[in-house]
Amino acid sequence: MVDTNFCDCTGHTDNPKPLPPVLVSLGETDSVQPVYGGEEGLLLEKSKVGKLNYEFILPDSCDAPVAAGEALGEMVVYSGDSELARVPLITGNEVKKLTIFKLYGKMLSRLYGG
C-alpha cells in the first residue's frame, strides 16, 4: 500500500549561496575555501520549499595547518522556526603552515614591494 502523503514531497538540492573564504593565520595561503559537505539534498514537503532560511556558522579565521576536508563550520536549514537539517561545512583545500624561511621571505617581499 502506498502512503499518499509522500506525493506532497519534493527533493531540494539547491545550495543557497557561495560561501566566503575563511582567513588562515600563518598559512602558505591567506584563506581556505569552505564547501558544503554531507547530504546532497533534503526531502521536504512542497509547501516548505519556498520558506527555507539558512544560518551559516563559520569562524572569522583559523590557524594553519588546515587539512582538506577538515570540519570548519555548519549550515543550519530552517523552515520558519523549525530546524530541518544541519549540513557540515568543510575545507575545500589544504593550507600548510608557513615555515620560518617562507615567513621571512614574505616579510622581505612586503618590505621591499616585490
Textual characterization of the structure:
With 114 residues, this protein is mainly β. It has one domain (4-112): Peptidoglycan synthesis regulatory factor (PBP3), Domain 2 (Sandwich), CATH 2.60.410. It is built from one helix and nine strands. It has one helix at residues 100-112; strands at 9-12, 22-25, 31-32, 34-36, 42-45, 52-57, 61-63, 71-79, 82-91. It is elongated, with a radius of gyration of 20 Å. The model has no long low-confidence stretch (mean pLDDT 84).
Radius of gyration: 20 Å
Q: How many structurally independent domains?
A: 1
CATH topology: Peptidoglycan synthesis regulatory factor (PBP3), Domain 2
The residue fraction in helices comes out at 10-25%
Query: What proportion strand?
Result: 35-45%
CATH top level class name: Mainly Beta
Q: Do you know the CATH architecture?
A: Sandwich
What is the N-to-C order of secondary-structure elements (H for helix, E for strand)?
EEEEEEEEEH
Q: Termini, distance in Å? A: 72 Å
Annotated CATH homologous superfamily: D-Ala-D-Ala carboxypeptidase, C-terminal domain
Q: What's a quick, concise take on this entry?
A:
With 114 residues, the protein is mostly beta strands.
Features:
mainly beta; 114 residues
List the helices and strands and how they pair.
Elements: E1 9-12, E2 22-25, E3 31-32, E4 34-36, E5 42-45, E6 52-57, E7 61-63, E8 71-79, E9 82-91, H1 100-112
Parallel strand pairs: 2-7
Antiparallel strand pairs: 1-5, 2-3, 4-9, 6-8, 8-9
